[in-house]
Design brief:
- By secondary structure, the protein is α+β, with helices and mostly antiparallel strands.
- It has one domain: BirA Bifunctional Protein, domain 2 (2-Layer Sandwich).
- It has 3 helices and 7 strands.
- It has a 7-stranded mixed beta sheet, with helices on both faces.
- α1 links the parallel β1 and β2.
- It is globular and about 45 Å long.
Length: 134
């Protein structure tokens, strides 16, 4: 078996940003797949460089991977990830309470519980942040 489900997992106690760590590793030649998980982020960020408050106890993860897809197809990863997170949450809370604020936020009622940030360069890195405590 290969792919994200069987990728090695690197667990860090503290990192500036799991996406930034993924980018550094890609620039150093790693191609993945590799999950980068942090217990805490000191400089988490969202789309357009917005700050993402990264409290201890939530889930911060980035999947470093490569794809043969072109930029237009690779951009769809954000939508697919949002759908996957929403589908997973429906296993725990009533489905009508789970919504997606397109393109990258997953909500339970009015609360944002997940944000997805996909960045690309020589290698694609996609970050997933879940507010598990909210």
């Amino acid at each position: 078996m290969s792919g994200p489900a069987s990728a090695p997992i690197l667990i860090l106690d503290d990192v500036d940003s799991t996406n930034a760590e993924g980018r550094r590793r890609a620039e150093a030649g790693q191609t993945g797949p590799l999950w980068i998980v942090a217990r805490r982020q000191s400089a988490g960020r969202g789309r357009r460089g917005r700050e993402w408050v990264s409290e201890t106890g939530n889930l911060y993860a980035t999947l470093l991977t490569t794809t043969p897809k072109g930029p237009a197809e690779a951009a769809q990863v954000t939508f697919v990830a949002a759908l996957a997170v929403a589908d997973l949450l429906c296993s725990f809370v009533p489905a009508p309470l789970v919504t997606i604020k397109w393109p990258n936020d997953v909500m339970i009622e009015a609360d944002k519980v997940s944000g997805i940030l996909v960045e690309s360069g020589a290698h694609e890195a996609g970050g997933l942040w879940n507010n598990a405590q909210q």
